[in-house]
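Work Package 4 report. The design task specified in the project plan requires that, given a folded chain encoded as structure tokens, an amino acid be chosen for each position. We show below one input record used in the internal validation round.
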């Protein structure tokens, strides 16, 4: 019995280039770095819009100024809690800021990421100089009281936290983000607890830091783009940042912080502190996601 003829499949011709090599397989969408420019633009626009809205409400409106003051005073009447919080905040100093910034720059240079080192310096210096100029030379309150917006302490804490997130290796950002969220919230909310700043002052500082983060990310991408993009875990990252902020609330309550007049000012007290923690955590989570995706 004769075997059936075997059908042979046609062999596709391989197209080679002039150098005799096969063309490389195109990268998939998950491996192609598109650059951080959309995030930079959105971050910058959101920062400007938020800052303008906060200034309009907290400084440009008598009713808004009164509400800002009421929220600060509603936080509590515990002298013990306020003293403990402000005792820690007083450690924020020019020397401490310089040391923390030097560590951030050193980490970036050890990773051979000059762009991130420059970005960290631009972010911290730019945010803090902007806050000082705005507070002392540009902005005034509608109620005639001395202006304290934006908060200098909150700007220092959050700008250093954002710089640390940028320069940290991707594998370490899961640790850096919640720690930075804790520090930024502790200092920012602590200035309200200690009656140093109104809530609007701290939220304005967050907006200033976010705006300079957008510039820093764009600058880092121009100087030295990241090698391989990573998938940002938005939900997990945000949760970690919020964990750091939530721990601050537990510490404050443990130190005896209670709303003044109890139920009467409970809502105002919550509105005074919770948005600070959420805003700080969101800024850190967003920055971490952008760094993972585009700066590595």
């Amino acid at each position: 019995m004769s075997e059936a003829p075997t059908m042979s499949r046609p062999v596709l011709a391989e197209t080679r280039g002039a150098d005799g090599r096969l063309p490389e397989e195109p990268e998939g969408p998950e491996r192609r770095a598109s650059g951080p420019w959309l995030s930079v633009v959105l971050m910058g626009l959101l920062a400007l819009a938020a800052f303008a809205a906060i200034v309009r409400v907290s400084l440009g409106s008598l009713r808004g100024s009164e509400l800002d003051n009421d929220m600060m005073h509603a936080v509590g009447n515990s002298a013990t809690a306020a003293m403990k919080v402000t005792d820690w905040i007083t450690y924020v100093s020019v020397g401490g800021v310089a040391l923390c910034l030097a560590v951030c720059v050193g980490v970036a240079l050890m990773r051979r990421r000059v762009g991130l080192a420059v970005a960290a310096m631009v972010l911290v210096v730019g945010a803090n100089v902007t806050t000082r100029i705005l507070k002392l030379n540009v902005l005034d309150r509608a109620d005639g009281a001395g202006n304290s917006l934006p908060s200098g302490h909150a700007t220092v804490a959050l700008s250093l936290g954002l710089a640390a997130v940028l320069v940290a290796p991707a594998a370490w950002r899961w640790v850096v983000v919640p720690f930075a969220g804790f520090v930024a919230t502790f200092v920012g909310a602590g200035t309200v607890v200690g009656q140093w700043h109104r809530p609007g002052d701290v939220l304005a500082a967050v907006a200033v830091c976010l705006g300079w983060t957008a510039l820093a990310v764009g600058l880092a991408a121009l100087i030295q783009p990241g090698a391989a993009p990573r998938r940002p875990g938005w939900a997990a990252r945000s949760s970690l940042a919020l964990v750091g902020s939530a721990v601050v609330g537990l510490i404050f309550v443990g130190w005896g912080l209670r709303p003044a007049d109890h139920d009467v000012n409970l809502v105002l007290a919550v509105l005074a502190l919770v948005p600070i923690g959420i805003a700080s955590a969101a800024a850190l989570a967003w920055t971490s996601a952008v760094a993972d995706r585009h700066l590595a």
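Residues 76 and 258 are 5 Å apart (CA to CA). Validation will be extended to a larger panel in the next phase.
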